[in-house]
Automatic annotation (TrEMBL):
Domain PHD-type: start-end pairs: 527-576
Stretches assigned to the SWIM-type domain: 119-155
GO biological processes: DNA repair
Keywords linked to the UniProt accession: Metal-binding, Zinc, Zinc-finger
A molecular-function term among this protein's GO annotations: zinc ion binding
The protein, known as: Uncharacterized protein
InterPro entries: PDDEXK-like_dom_sf, Restrct_endonuc-II-like, YqaJ_viral_recombinase, Zinc_finger_PHD-type_CS, Znf_FYVE_PHD, Znf_PHD, Znf_PHD-finger, Znf_RING/FYVE/PHD
Naturally occurring in which organism (per UniProt): Mytilus edulis
Keyword Zinc-finger: yes
Amino acid sequence: MSYNYQESLNGEALSRYQCKLDLISCKECPYKLPAGVWQNNPCKWPDVQWGDVYSYLIDSPGVYTRESMKAFKSLEAHNFFISGWVQTVFHYLTEKGAPFILKADVKPSQRVNEDPHHPWVAVNSSGTVVAAHCDCMAGLSEVCSHVAALLFKIEAAGRLGYTRKACTEEPCKWNADFVKKVLPDPISKIKFYKASTVLKAKSRKRNRTRKFTPANDNQKQQLLDSLKGCTTKPIVLCTFNGYSTDFHWTTPTVNTPKIPAALKDWYHPDNIKLSIDELYDKCKGIADSMTISYEVTRYIYDCTTAQSSSMTWYDQRVGRITSSTVHNVLHTTLENPSTSLLKKICDPAPKPLNVPAVIWGREHEKSAIKEFQQVMCTDHQNFCVKKAGFLIDLNYPYIGVSADGIATCDCHGSSVLEVKCPYKYRSSLLPEFLADPNTCLTTDHELKKTHQYYSQVQLQMYVHNMNTSFFVVWGEKFTVVSNVTKDDEFIKTMLEKSHNFFINAVVPELLTRKISSPTEKPISNDELFCICQTPEDGNMIGCDNQNCKYKWFHLDCIKMKRVPKFTWYCSYCKKQ
């Protein structure tokens, strides 16, 4: 029972409930009365007659009217009673001369396994209903169907004489006769109609017998063919041979693009035995035959929006000229290419840098983007920034870029976003930053064309096929935004040099790994990762705890569908 029901009320509802208790001289809420004070003895009940029930239901606020009470047998409350949903009725006498309080549990008709409702009624010795209440949603009003069902059972007890009989077991047995447990039955045993309805249907006389001639095979075939020709095919056709095939469910095949093998897999020990001419021909043939589809590039892009937290991001960058290495490509020679540059491009091992400058930039990039958005929202409509993944160029598949984001607005379209948080100027003012001759910006806030960041954003604009870029420099005391436009002549020269460098320097290193130290063991494709201790599969995520035992996890092993966009820690590190 709802022991704390009165405490759960507030305001007007509590005031009305207290008035009911005062009216029946009940000092304690009926829901708080101990079980020992309630009695199961219909012989002591007041003689409640139909007129008493009728008067209370009509005069009290509720759904009951004179018209509805004329057909009371169709009411939901009466169905509660005759269906056995009203359980044993108990009574309690507060004090001599005070009204009787009668209560019973009433089960919900459509949710029989849920907790019952708890109505109570107060009746004086003459049978007049003084007050009633229920803890259901409609119980705050004077009358609900559960209160009415309880009154119907009390009235039936008086009408059947159980309130006037001597104290025998018969009234108590009648009071305890209700549905105690509802068991499931097969549909064939469930009665969906009242007995009177069934008898009426059986006794109905049929005036005439319909005669018909059974259809022959040709007529049946014509009917089926005409049904098949309908715009919406009738479901009955699925039961006939020759017509059921139209209803077979076919699951549409979704061609999910596959991530291509990493360029590091080009390595083979026999390649080092090739002559210079043979190696060059092989390198040129590989470079010229490289292709990639638009669907694959977008799939890789979507899989790598977490960037350094994605193993695919590392794998697909290996062997490709990226926006962070293209400036050095432009300033090295083919005759003597930079060894450190080739290692940076071709080294398959992800080695996150934990130097202060890198940590500072990684930790404050989100703050810089947030301040950038706040500045731009004042002058642009629906301005927003989306994370960007690793995008491979369709025309030159050995080139890829990872921008910090893509900025979009209704007034100017889309632009590339590149954010820098220089550790050296973290606490400087903007004039101090611009005064340094080695900084990337001029005093007019323009990106210097000789700076490596200029090459970076130009390559990003080319691969993303965008004409503008927002270059943001952020410090604790300043935020400056430089608008960079696409430089077609610069990009043309950059692509030519990148193509030559890829054929003459990058591909030979990918095939032979000559620059790798003889004492340095190349990382094998069979290196084991994750809790399952199996090789990588391209869809992996890295734990952001630098001391993690496993470092990298297969998405399937940890039951993840995609790489999260923010910081992620494995379950093992979370427990520490």
